[in-house]
Design goal:
Layout (H helix, E strand, L loop, with lengths): L2 H35 L3 H119 L9 H37 L11 H47 L18
Length: about 280
């Protein structure tokens, strides 16, 4: 049992004893009254006074016992309440300290994250500026190179002159002679090549005939038939080539007319000369 329960039990016993004492006093008073009725008034009066004193002492004792117990209980309850309040305050202080520590830690983490974000942004800004500077430098270099190229081209154009590049008449005549001689040689070589190709084609199409005097009639007939087939084949090829050539010439003329129409160049017709005669009145 706790001290509070012991005190409550002690107060309960004290009250029970006080009640029993009151009952005894009451019983003794009743007994003395009966005796007084029977004629013993002189002897009963001191007993009443004694019973009254005993009853007062019992009440005083109960009050003396009850008051200290109540004071002790109140003091213990006050101490317990103070202890509880102190513990609650300590708990609140610890909770407040933990909360402050958590807030401080959270603030430090946020501050670190903010610094990291600022550092990352500064790094990105620095890289972006470097990239812009590099692109600007490349663009400036490209523009400078383009300007230099244009300047060189303009200088070369200025240096160049019309005609044969500012040659003297003697040099121009010599250069023209060389060009004409080279063209003549190339034309002669091309003519020789064409002639050789023609001869080869003729030899391929018309081989040398064998000795006809030694051939039999059947062999001559077969040879004639073979030559007739070759002639027919050659005529067919000739006709096809002529048709193809005519078609190509017609297409060339048509395209020439279309090009002239597009460019706006028309063949100027030849006009007849008309003699203007003045009208006489």
């Amino acid at each position: 049992m706790s001290s509070a329960e012991e005190r409550r039990a002690a107060r309960r016993r004290a009250r029970e004893e006080a009640a029993a004492t009151e009952e005894d006093v009451t019983d003794s008073r009743e007994e003395r009254r009966r005796r007084r009725r029977q004629g013993g008034d002189e002897e009963a009066e001191p007993s009443v006074e004694e019973d009254t004193r005993r009853s007062r002492r019992s009440r005083d004792e109960v009050e003396e016992v009850s008051v200290p117990d109540t004071s002790a209980e109140d003091e213990a309850a006050a101490r317990a309440e103070e202890e509880r309040i102190r513990q609650e305050q300590e708990e609140q202080e610890r909770a407040e300290a933990e909360r402050r520590a958590q807030e401080e830690e959270e603030r430090m983490r946020e501050e670190a994250a903010r610094r990291e974000e600022e550092e990352r942004q500064r790094e990105e800004e620095r890289r972006r500026q470097e990239e812009e500077e590099r692109l600007a430098a490349e663009k400036a270099a490209a523009e400078q190179a383009e300007k230099e190229r244009i300047r060189q081209e303009e200088e070369e154009k200025k240096k160049k002159k019309k005609g044969f590049g500012g040659l003297t008449p003697e040099k121009k005549k010599l250069l023209k002679t060389i060009i004409m001689e080279r063209a003549r040689q190339e034309l002669h070589a091309e003519a020789l090549r064409n002639k050789e190709a023609k001869e080869n084609k003729i030899k391929e199409c018309c081989p040398n005939l064998p000795d006809l005097s030694t051939m039999a009639e059947a062999e001559l007939q077969a040879l004639c038939k073979k030559l007739h087939d070759k002639i027919s084949k050659s005529e067919e090829d000739k006709y096809d080539i002529e048709v193809k050539l005519a078609t190509q010439e017609a297409e060339i003329n048509e395209l020439t007319l279309k090009v002239s129409d597009v460019k706006g160049r028309f063949a100027r017709p030849v006009l007849k000369k008309v003699v203007r005669v003045e009208r006489r009145h």
